[in-house]
């Protein structure tokens, strides 16, 4: 396993905020990573520093073993596109593409042209006069056609409509399959992107909350729905990330600790106890994990997720929501 990026004890302090707080994380080369987290979590700060566009307050960043800042050996291998991408004043898309051709050694001009047609980027409109979606299209084309060894997409696709976003996901995956490289994407539309991601790094208030292959993470989480006692018994020693009770029914999203073995008879036991075992989408999981992080004191263990008492309110009673523990970092 080769890492494209190694970040060690990285902090970034501003006068009024700590954007990154002692972050140590690596991004494996040749993998599509999702960098996920709530607003203000530190995603842009991390990408800006790893791409050499901002300086850390303390700590170290290496891209292919080299410090990226003002480093001509490594900067041409890094592309960082963001929603508020800056362009040369009064430029057209073709000027942005020409500049990219000079900056990125693997730039594919034909691909950029084809993508511009696919995304219907207007050739005769200055970028600053384009609609938000058209500007987003220019940014994602730069990100794909640069074919940089490490490409950061800091939500440039947020301006795209649903059809154009789908086109972006398809074209990116197609090109990545042909030209494997390291992609790091941040997004709040997690379920839309989930099928692309191989690894997720979750950042919360400047700290790494989780770093794990998507498949492993998905395999650790389930939602159990059924009679409260049976759900709690089935949850066993797993962490309850989130639970809601509706009358006597408890719905609990639970997470096995990394390395904790799966119960091969869970489905059978659940069926016998009248409990449904449902998959958890990546988005639900990240929402539960990061909203758990937001509630400082409410920590639920499987034995205390506020289930209704056996003589609890009727089926029309409002849902009770509890949130689980605050951090989950796996190796
Ligand atoms: N130049 C700056 N000056 C002061 N504070 C900053 C600066 N840049 C970032 N911050 C603060 O650092 C924290 C992390 O910001 P960052 O932009 O990295 O978050 P993010 O995860 O990208 O958020 P979003 O999803 O909303 O884009 C925020 O509290 C932000 O206000």
TrEMBL record:
InterPro entries found in the cross-reference section: AAA+_ATPase (IPR003593), ABC_transporter-like_ATP-bd (IPR003439), P-loop_NTPase (IPR027417)
PROSITE patterns registered for this protein in UniProt: ABC_TRANSPORTER_2 (PS50893)
Region of interest called Disordered, as start-end residue ranges on this chain: 291-331
A Pfam family annotated for this UniProt entry: ABC_tran
UniProtKB keywords: ATP-binding, Nucleotide-binding
Biased composition (Low complexity): 291-303
Entry keyword Nucleotide-binding: yes
Domain of life: Bacteria
Protein name: ABC transporter ATP-binding protein
